[in-house]
Structure formats: C-alpha cells, structure tokens
C-alpha cells in the first residue's frame, strides 16, 4: 500500500492508537536496512500532511524525527524527510511560524547537500521551501534570503526541467521578502533577469509558466514602472506572448532605466549563445540586438565590439 493511503486510512480510523504506532515506528528510522528507513520516513512524512498529528500532540515528535534523518546515508531518506517537514505547511500551517527558523535551516541544508548527484534532495528542499514561505515569520527568512537566492541560481539552467521550474518558482516566491534587503536582493534580480527572460522561450511549458510568475513577482522591485506594468500585463499565465514585440519593449525600458547595465546584459546573453536549446540561443541574439538598438549614444562606448562580433 502506498504511504499516502496508509497515512490517510490511519488518520481516519487509527485515532488514539496513532501515538503507539508512531512510538513503535521510531526505532525503524535508525534501522540498518535502507528499505525500512525509507518506509518509516515516508510514513512520517505523509502523516505530517494531516492535522491529526497536531490533535494528538505528535507534531514535535514527527518533526524532530524528520530533522534527525537529514544526515542519513540514503538520499531517498533525506529527500523524504524534507518532504515531511514541508508537509507541515498543509498539515499544521499554524505551527510553521513557531518552528520557522528550524524548518528553514533544514531546507537550506538540503539545498547544500553535497552527496546528491541528481539533485533529488535539493529539488525537494526547493519545493518544500516554497510551500513553507507563506507561513514563516519574515525575520526568519530575511537572514537566509541572500544565501538561498545565490544557491538556487545555477538551477535556472539545469538540464532537468523540474529543477528549472522549482528553482525559478522559489525565486519568485522569495521576492515577497526582499523589502528589508531591497538593494541586496535587487542585485540578485539583475543577476537572474536575462535568464528569466530567455527561458520564456524554454522548451518546457511548465518552466515558461514559472518564468512568467517570477518576472511578475520581480517587477515591483525593479524601480521601473514601465517594466513592472509590462510583466504584470503581458506575462499573465493565460495570455500568449509575442516574444519579439515583448523583448523589444523590455529592452527599451531597460536602456531607459539602466543604461549603465548594457555591457553586463550583453555579456550574460553571450553566455547563452552556447545553450543546448536553439530557441534560447535565438532569443539571446535577439535580446542583444534590441539592447543595442535602444541604447543612447552616451552609453554606446560600453559595448565591447570585439566580444560582440566574436560571440564570446
């Protein structure tokens, strides 16, 4: 039986017996057998998505045991433990605020997992963190904001679409907390802006939707009303996008508001000339063309023509 089905059945019917079941399962979390630790962790993770753990005063017990599995030798156990901690957002959202700092630290540790060749733990950490963000105290996320933004940035270009989608969605969600770190986070928005705009041409529709969401969230933090309005109006999920016209107008606003960024924007786009995705290579060339078209004469000298002509 799948863990979700077991958890659901037990939540409905086991009632007062659940504390004893949980108590008897705890030793299994330290079993020498991977399969037993995986099964027990999956059960605890699913249990945490139901408010029954709160009713039966099991939340702290389950949460502490999931936190304790973060150093497990098995990747799947570490991944499931993070899923369980993220599930508190749906099972006991009112408790997330109380344990926010601890939960956020677990997600950051998961993103920094060094023994995760396929990034399964990092993916779960990003997905779970996005769920928790609606319920944490702003002060708890503020101290970690910059570290998280920098850590997830490489995933924007991952070959794995689910990593691209999750990291970009998380970045969009992080912007809600950027007010206190406006200047610092603005730099992170600028670092990711070209990538987000280019991935509007991503081959995967779910990644395109994530980019639209992230750009809509970034707009109000960019200090340019024209760009903000464009992102809000043209990047609605239900609206198709004429990419060429959109990028022409975006570059016009960028060069009016941030002309000193021209060389930086060109250099970032040149990096994408080597992208594996043909549509993104084409978008990068178009992006540079529109930037040069709209820059004023005073800032033309920023352009490194040798670099531009060589495409490197």
From TrEMBL:
<feature type="domain" description="Maestro/Maestro-like HEAT-repeats">
    <location>
        <begin position="63"/>
        <end position="310"/>
    </location>
</feature>
<dbReference type="InterPro" id="IPR016024">
    <property type="entry name" value="ARM-type_fold"/>
</dbReference>
<dbReference type="Pfam" id="PF23227">
    <property type="entry name" value="HEAT_MROH2B_C"/>
</dbReference>
<protein>
    <submittedName>
        <fullName>MROH1 protein</fullName>
    </submittedName>
</protein>
<dbReference type="InterPro" id="IPR045206">
    <property type="entry name" value="Maestro_heat-like_prot"/>
</dbReference>
<dbReference type="InterPro" id="IPR011989">
    <property type="entry name" value="ARM-like"/>
</dbReference>
<dbReference type="GO" id="GO:0005737">
    <property type="term" value="C:cytoplasm"/>
</dbReference>
<dbReference type="InterPro" id="IPR055406">
    <property type="entry name" value="HEAT_Maestro"/>
</dbReference>
